[in-house]
């Protein structure tokens, strides 16, 4: 052993041994277990450390390969499992500090290399060694004990990563990020343990501040590429920034540095006495930071400004978090002032060229925006404190900031608008001296293309309007607006003054300010107009300014609060004066100026002048009309003009104020022919206004008035025909008159027509109605084919308005247009499929009393139209003439894919027209078209067209079903015999291709067919006219088709499915008729004989389907099998009720028992398969219910389909993970019926086993074992079994287990409260089961102890730390249980009222804390608010219900009120929540006596007593007086 020891040691120390051999020997010594060396690991670690130290200190010389090998050897040691095991066992192995210094030096060398390659072997190995040291608690002490080494490491790693981010190569590795994060973690630990915080500050400022801020800037501004490592993009970069922020926060803004910052910044404001002996204070810490940030030699001239702009908001936020408390707001402001100066925003630059370029100002603006937002959010600025204590120093600085922003504007940058908005929010006086410049630069003269800039501008102007509206200084603001508009400028380049969003905000502001201020604004606008009109002649620019101000006046007058009879008389008189002045001084001069245009730009000038005149005229007329309607004291200044105009009955413009009517004709002709679109639109509005005035006149209309209305309506529609025709894909319109131009005129015109349909349609001829219908249909059909890009700023477009019209409730009220749209749509569909003309014969219309143009009266309702007798050939001949029910349909050309798309869209539009209320003629037209479509559209086996054809056919059958449920459904029987119609509709279904069964939409298609057949056959049965002939004809047709196919052998499974659907639908209707009608419940009736034929036909069809495929497609054929079974059971019931000659009933055997058994096996096999088709699941449960009702089917002889097998399948279904409460609730009736049938079919022993298995599933050990699904299924089964209301011994067996079940539910609730994944679901089901127990156990639960156990269950249910949906569901479930106790177990409350109130008050306290303003207002959404308010409404209802139980709860009412008041004093409730809770507690106060009031006043504390007094005063004023008034009139 000694030889081994001395040999290795000597060879490693020997200078004669080659370095390559030394490395090999060292590797062997580390890995070999045969090499015994005292303290071997430490010796080898010291050797490699000493060797590397000697090399880098120039004491040893060897090649680069040896150096790299030594680093690799060191890395292998640091990451070896052997070393990890030794350290875990407690062996102490140290590493020299020289290794840490060498690692730092190597990283520093690589950070200076350009270009940088972090994948080089030497750097990768060094980083790996560093990672091994930092990750090991044993070795990391070499850094943590030498803080300078760790700081140096972090600095050099950050610089290395900065160099790497600055290179164009992608980041393919996360190694460098991992090492830096480890180093930052270790540094944060050391930083927290450091007692000398001044030293930490100097280290951070001296070595870390610049590289860390540069790294943060590069990470936050990097444009990540797809080649970059995903982990770096997603979380490593964010984690690095967070660690940098933490290091800077504690290093720069520690609590110990507060006095140092105060000494530096508050010398002139608040002199800080320096403590004697205070030696660790920093000298100008903020200046040190800013000097480092301004060091262009480190960052480079290109990055210095960007890094500073990105870092200053972070540093300011960290400063606010540390110091902005305890009255240090002034310090925070001075930090902002220094930071603002560092951004490069001097108050005045020598000129625009000397200031920084716009591109260079953007980072500074973004930083300034964040700084101002931090000031606003941190409550740094208090107006009163700054003015009184500080002499307005903050105000002066913010004014300087505002002056800088307005001196060097950047409207293209959203941050510029946000900065100004924040300044206005701080104090509007900051921008008051420069309000005109603000309005000019940010509003009137701003030309913006960027949507983000427009959004920021809208936010700024909204804040501006809100601020001046609250200050009641809106006239001051609009005075500046008018001054900016009126001064010389290029108005053509200006954008609209009031875009849509700003107009809405102006409307809200005008509703808040007094009417006198609106009149002041009105007066200012009129003065501006008068001033401009004086220089109007021949000046297009002035005409444009007049037009801009006119649109502004229109917006203000249309959005102001209307005067009523309660308005003050001075306001009304001033309004009259302004109206008269507007007509005399503005409108009339504008019309006079427009009469004789002169000058070079006379056409343009005349257009703008006339547009202004007509716009103001329309505004004047509309406001005048509104004032006369709402304010009886108002006297219209235009009365004389109106009386003069009444003479000209033929004039369309008699409502214009004080206009020379002799000169108006030429102006109207100019508007019609060559004026701009705004003039035309205003003229249309004036015509609409005249129509309203005529219609509002009392008494019947004269002939002249009717003619005037017709000409007016005709003018409105025709004046925009050309624009609509040439509109194409016209851009959207925002609804403002100032945006009506050549592009938006068509949309504005169509909006005007759509908004006044009720006025226009009665006076339009058929030609114009057809034109309107054509536009509607054309845009509806083209809406789906072209890409629609909705613009939120311009929401109005012709297609969207047409869509809204079709979906609105007003269209059916406008019958002429409704019928034209319907006829146009039917014609489009007929043309798509090339169908022949399908007009209804005139003789049939005469017979129905409907000439096609008059509206259907109430005489033609369902049941009032009888089918022609069988001997009368008219019905069939009519259809034969139109080829709608001929035995052989005409051959039609094939339909292309594009035609199919248009057909589907047309059918969608047709379904939106509410076809259930059509007139007789329109009903017949639709019926004929749809029947013809069913015949013409033949789905082929082509993969491309088959699904589309199936969708089209499904829509056709759906529309036929809607028609059949309409008010004129029986009109179809005037057209043909019911049997002919059924044959015609069914025949195409039996000829389709066999490949369609696998097509998408085929089950939905068969469902649509089934629904139509059910409605149609039900109507045939209900009419009771020729029912036997029609149904026997239909059955004979189906039978002949089946028999002929059996003879020829040419048959398809798809046709068999269609045939089975038709047969089962007919049989189901007959079964329902036989079960509901007493007259039909005997043998020999028509229904009985038809049902026998159907079972004899449906059985072989289904059997054939089964023989062909081996297994039935349950989705399609299982309802048919269920119908067949129900038909056989119905026939058995009819025959069992009729005794035979021997005196005993003849039991009818089931003919297709094997078919039912095989179907049941398939249903049970597929029952637990996940599905979203609730209708299929419902049909499966209904089939099982019918199966269980047959004694010979559900027996123990067939164990696969017996009671136990079905129950196991149901239990497995309820235990399926995809079964939720939302799925179970719609199937509640089916589940309950199935369980009732099972209970009736099984023996007492079997039922006992069923109950036992359910109770075993409720045991808590199922949760312990992780078998949550068993508990869930047992809870659901218990609830369903209780709802069955079983009687006899089975019902007793259920209620005998009540104590066991309630105890199990209590334990489940307690255990589930601690179980997160399944806890909420188990609790909800347990509470639902308890509620059903209480409801069904009324009069049965005699032991009150069972009910009091429920309170324990409710108290253990958690109400905190729940998601919103979970909270709402559990809240409603607890409320339902409490309500069930009140309603059904009221006797228990005599002894358990306190327990009840304890549970209820827990709900009240919970909703008070959930419904406070902070929870809903700050982080809540609309959905959250709705859930909380709904819970509060439930609490109010419960309060009302409890208060009605005076005997039980009067003793405890005062305690409940006291508890409510105590909680109310702690929170500030949301308004809606407070309203409901207050209304509820008022009902409890009804139970409080005078003694209780004295008790409450003595019990409550001082602050709480004030809250109670306010509540009780409101109760006395609002609730008690109302209740006493109601009692006065109560018998």
Task: Give the tags.
1531 residues; mainly alpha; disordered N terminus; globular; 0% strand; disordered C terminus
Low-confidence stretches: 1-6, 114-119, 273-279, 347-360, 640-654, 851-888, 1140-1145, 1525-1531
Mean pLDDT: 80
Assembly classification: single chain
**Into which percent range does the helicity of residues fall?**
55-70%
Structural class: mainly alpha
| Rg (C-alpha, Å) | 44 Å
> In percent terms, what proportion of residues is strand?
under 5%
Brief characterization of the structure:
The protein has 1531 residues and is mainly alpha-helical.
Tell me about this structure.
- By secondary structure, the protein is mostly helical.
- Helices cover 69% and strands 0% of the residues.
- The chain contains 72 helices and no strands.
- Helix 16 packs antiparallel against helix 17, helix 18 packs parallel to helix 21 and helix 49 runs antiparallel to helix 50.
- The N terminus and C terminus are likely disordered.
Write the layout of secondary structure elements.
Layout: H1 2-13, H2 19-31, H3 40-56, H4 64-78, H5 81-88, H6 97-111, H7 121-135, H8 141-144, H9 147-166, H10 175-193, H11 197-221, H12 230-252, H13 258-265, H14 285-293, H15 296-299, H16 304-323, H17 329-342, H18 358-377, H19 383-388, H20 393-407, H21 414-426, H22 435-444, H23 451-470, H24 474-486, H25 500-512, H26 515-533, H27 540-559, H28 569-595, H29 602-630, H30 639-645, H31 661-673, H32 677-695, H33 703-718, H34 721-725, H35 745-755, H36 757-760, H37 766-785, H38 798-807, H39 815-833, H40 842-848, H41 874-882, H42 897-911, H43 920-936, H44 946-964, H45 972-975, H46 978-986, H47 1002-1023, H48 1027-1048, H49 1053-1076, H50 1086-1109, H51 1114-1136, H52 1153-1166, H53 1174-1188, H54 1203-1214, H55 1221-1224, H56 1228-1241, H57 1244-1257, H58 1261-1264, H59 1268-1283, H60 1288-1296, H61 1298-1312, H62 1316-1336, H63 1344-1355, H64 1364-1384, H65 1389-1410, H66 1413-1419, H67 1422-1443, H68 1446-1449, H69 1453-1464, H70 1471-1485, H71 1490-1499, H72 1502-1528
Helix pairs in contact: 2-4, 3-4, 4-7, 6-7, 6-9, 7-10, 9-10, 9-11, 10-12, 11-12, 11-14, 11-16, 12-16, 16-17, 16-18, 18-21, 21-23, 22-24, 23-25, 24-26, 25-27, 26-27, 26-28, 27-29, 28-29, 29-32, 32-33, 32-35, 35-38, 37-38, 37-39, 37-42, 39-42, 39-43, 42-44, 43-44, 44-47, 46-48, 47-49, 48-50, ...
